[in-house]
Design brief:
The protein has four domains: 225 residues, Rhopdopsin 7-helix transmembrane proteins (Up-down Bundle); 101 residues, Beta-Lactamase; 73 residues, Helix Hairpins (Orthogonal Bundle); 142 residues, Heat Shock Protein 90, CATH 3.30.565. It contains 20 helices and 15 strands. A hairpin with a 2-residue loop joins β14 and β15. It is rod-shaped.
Length: 700
């Protein structure tokens, strides 16, 4: 058997040395620390196998070849670890001089081991191992110490360096394993046999390396992420499989750490037959005990975990608040208690979350359905959210405006100039409020603009909220109220003035008539007297209109046909419009209406006379009617000179006129009468050649 082991261990040594040289001299140093580490593990396994051969398969006689293999593996292990401590973790390229310094002496010593220059012979006897070394053996020991010290120095230097601060814990672990395993192996596997001439507690050397291998492998897996495929596979195991797998590892460890020393010290086992029998009994008993313990532990741990898994599955489906019933004071019980607390917290949090989602839904719905235009934008002006009403302001859609910059899109919208100005005024720190006027297709619109910052979890504003409320109706009411107050004051003053003027005017009229009848007047005097009478009559008409405007006369409402009223108007004004050949086209249907006939006659007569005065030769006035939503709509369209645009809002004001002989009360009285009927009159359009008035009157 010895020649077979000779070939095997010699080949393993040569292959390991070649593999080390290949790794060190490869062009790429990427992953070199992992490769060196894996090679070190392989050498440790070889070293353990070599020792196992000593104990299990040894025969009485010469075991020199096994001793040489153990020394070769030890030297290769410390050499590989020296290279590993240099490259980990920075993977800095090693200089050629240092490589040769480490490799050349090691190769020479390996050759000397296998050629018999260091170990002369080793013999296995019934009770002990004898070892005979040459005088050159001390070179091996010195070189081993040099490599170990160099490895410790390289690691210590990196540990104290601030450049490798994040790897400090890993390197301390590696340093501890390096010192414990190699010093133990050196003392019990190399130094004591050299001093004593026989191996004393030789088992400690492989045990030390076995412990070191487990320690460094654990670090490799947890820190270096080595063997990811194997780790991933193990992680997919069930709990029972993991316990069984752990038992397979624990049993050999216990045998090596406890059974071998007990077999040597307590039972005085020496022969290979005794060791083989002892190993078989130990392994069988260990597997049996480990299997029973694994089964019991799996029942104690797996059953509660299965319960937890089942409840977790129910919670995953939305059944929050379920609790697992595990009565235990150990870690599983603590886990169950924590799990139940988590489940209850999930139930409460889910309920609160649903409540918040409901409130958010209400807010979003109110946000979208609000009549106000609302927009949220960040501190740079990028639109975060908006409602449909805000999109209407820009004649666009929400999708197109979202993520755009509010300052940019407002600046380029001509109808929103005042809004753009207000945005420029806002400084982003305090609430801002201002009325703005914008242009729309249906005329001007007034908005009450409010801009205020909003915050999240910090004192720094996260953005701004813009709310624009349409106050056009309020502005119209305010203007109407101001106008009503103005008209009321004006009417009261006009009534007083008219009353004061009427009495002396009547006296003047009466005395003028007396003078004209009592004295002989020349033609010139008669002409002057005619002017006086004409002006007196004009003033009388003015006083009459002022009193009519100022007084709130009760309406005498009766049912009548509106078409008959227009026919009476045409009959009365027919001769008046002959000279100018002014034509009136009445296209009014038969429609009964409850109103004051005389007052409406006055209204329509005033509008017709205004059209006549504005018309040119062969002018035309068209009167049309229609009913809409229980309202009678009358439209008066003429082809006269029209009314200038800047006067459109003034034509219904009292005493405002552009005629040299006008009183400025005609349309004011017309508007008052229409409003007394709960209707309204509007100037729809007026350009050169076309003026349109519309009157809305309720049918009931």
């Amino acid at each position: 058997m010895i020649p077979v082991f000779n070939i095997i261990f010699l080949a393993a040594t040569i292959i390991s040395a070649i593999g080390l040289i290949f790794i060190i001299y490869s062009r790429s140093i990427r992953g070199i620390d992992r490769k060196l580490y894996i090679l070190a593990l392989a050498l440790i396994i070889g070293y353990l196998v070599s020792h196992a051969v000593h104990f299990v398969f040894m025969q009485m006689g010469d075991v020199t070849i096994l001793d040489q293999s153990c020394h070769s593996f030890l030297l290769l292990i410390i050499l590989v670890l020296t290279f590993f401590t240099y490259y980990y973790p920075n993977k800095k390229q090693m200089g050629l001089g240092l490589k040769l310094f480490l490799l050349i002496p090691s190769i020479i010593i390996l050759a000397a081991i296998w050629l018999g220059y260091l170990i002369e012979e080793s013999h296995a006897h019934q009770h002990h191992f004898e070892a005979h070394y040459s005088s050159y053996y001390s070179i091996y020991l010195i070189w081993y110490i040099i490599l170990l010290c160099l490895s410790i120095y390289l690691l210590t230097k990196k540990i104290v360096s601030p450049d490798f601060k994040e790897y400090k814990t890993q390197m301390l672990t590696i340093l501890l394993g390096l010192i414990v395993t190699n010093i133990t192996a050196f003392v019990f596997g190399l130094y004591l046999p050299w001093i004593l001439g026989f191996y004393y507690l030789v088992e400690i050397s492989p045990l030390a390396f076995f412990i070191g291998a487990i320690l460094t492998t654990t670090v490799a897996i947890s820190k270096f992420n080595m063997f990811p495929a194997a780790v991933s596979k193990i992680q997919t195991f069930s709990l029972n499989k993991k316990l069984f797998f752990a038992a397979l590892i624990v049993v050999p460890v216990v045998i090596l750490l406890i059974q071998i020393p007990l077999g040597r010290i307590l039972f005085d086992i020496q022969t290979s037959e005794e060791w083989q029998k002892y190993f078989i009994i130990s392994i069988a008993g260990g597997i049996l005990v480990a299997g029973v313990m694994a089964f019991i532990i799996s029942r104690i741990i797996a059953n509660p975990i299965n319960k937890l898994t089942e409840i977790t599955s129910q919670i995953q489906k939305g059944n929050y608040g379920l609790k697992v019933d595990i009565n235990s004071n150990d870690e599983i019980g603590l886990l169950a208690e924590t799990f139940n607390e988590m489940s209850d917290t999930l139930r409460k949090d889910t309920f609160e979350l649903k409540e918040k989602q409901h409130r958010i839904s209400l807010l979003i719905n109110a946000f979208e359905k609000s009549n106000a235009s609302i927009c949220a934008f960040d501190v740079l002006g990028n639109i975060l959210e908006l409602n449909t009403q805000f999109a209407f302001l820009y004649k666009s859609s929400k999708e197109k405006l979202l993520k755009n910059n509010i300052y940019e899109i407002t600046k380029h919208e001509n109808s929103l100039n005042e809004l753009s100005t207000s945005l420029a005024k806002y400084n982003g720190s305090v609430n801002f409020e201002e009325e703005v006027k914008i242009s729309t297709g249906n005329g001007a619109k007034f908005l009450l603009l409010t801009i205020s910052p909003f915050y999240f979890d910090t004192d720094q504003a996260a953005g701004n909220l813009l709310i624009a409320v349409d106050i056009t109706h309020i502005k119209i009411l305010e203007n109407q109220l101001a106008k009503s107050e103005k008209l009321a004051a004006l009417g009261k003053m006009a009534a007083v003035l008219a009353h004061e003027i009427k009495t002396p005017l009547t006296s003047i009229k009466m005395n003028s008539d007396i003078l004209a009848e009592s004295i002989d007047l020349t033609d010139e005097d008669k002409y002057s007297m005619g002017i006086i009478n004409k002006e007196i009559n004009r003033l009388n008409n003015l006083v009459k209109q002022v009193l009519q405007f100022a007084r709130q006369v009760e309406l005498d409402k009766k049912w009548f046909d509106i078409k008959d009223l227009f026919y009476d108007l045409l009959a009365q004004t027919e001769l008046q419009f002959v000279d100018k050949r002014f034509n009136i086209n009445v296209n009014v249907g038969n429609q009964k209406i409850l109103a004051d006939r005389e007052k409406l006659f006055q209204v329509f007569l005033n509008i017709i006379e205004n059209s006549f005065e504005s018309a040119k030769e062969n002018g035309l006035l068209t009167i049309e009617s229609k009913t809409e939503l229980k309202n009678l709509i009358l439209r008066f369209t003429d082809d006269g000179n029209g009314i200038p645009y800047d006067l459109h809002e003034k034509i219904f004001e009292p005493f405002y006129t552009t005629k040299s002989s006008g009183t400025g009360l005609g349309l004011a009285v017309v508007q008052k009468i229409i409003e007394q009927h709960r209707g309204r009159i509007t100037l729809k359009a007026s350009d050169l050649g076309k003026t349109i008035f519309e009157i809305y009157l309720p049918l009931e």
